[in-house]
Design goal:
135 residues; 3 strands; 42% helix; globular
């Protein structure tokens, strides 16, 4: 079995992540999704908990009929060799959080499942509250 490792913070999981996972599964039988900074939550760069991020990803992959994956937390950074992917211009979790703060369209950058989940856990309000507390 050929496995691939996909590492990210997924704050939140977005369309570029989903595209990358689909590409990875064309070359691998299974993708191991490692959620970095798993100990972090409720701060501007990491507003969502590991449990919330895991659920967002699982919801999205299930609705996209993707079954060959496992999700694990990563609590510390390590110096393993990593194949860098080319980022998709205009989509990043930082951009999404910034759009949320500025009341701009962020929904088009994430799968519907992520939009629904963020709304369900009051993620928009949490991100804005975290941001305003830093001012």
């Amino acid at each position: 079995m050929h496995r691939a490792l996909f590492i990210g913070r997924f704050q939140p999981f977005h369309n570029a992540h989903l595209i990358d996972i689909k590409k990875v599964l064309k070359e691998a039988d299974e993708v191991i999704i490692a959620i970095g900074s798993s100990q972090e939550k409720n701060i501007l760069d990491n507003p969502f908990s590991y449990k919330e991020r895991r659920q967002m990803i699982a919801n999205t992959l299930k609705n996209n009929k993707i079954n060959h994956y496992k999700i694990y937390p990563v609590f510390k950074r390590h110096d393993s060799k990593v194949k860098k992917i080319r980022l998709i211009r205009g989509i990043s979790s930082t951009i999404i959080r910034d759009k949320i703060i500025k009341n701009k369209d962020w929904q088009s950058l994430v799968p519907k499942e992520i939009e629904d989940y963020i709304k369900k856990v009051n993620g928009v309000e949490r991100i804005k509250k975290i941001y305003s507390s830093r001012l």
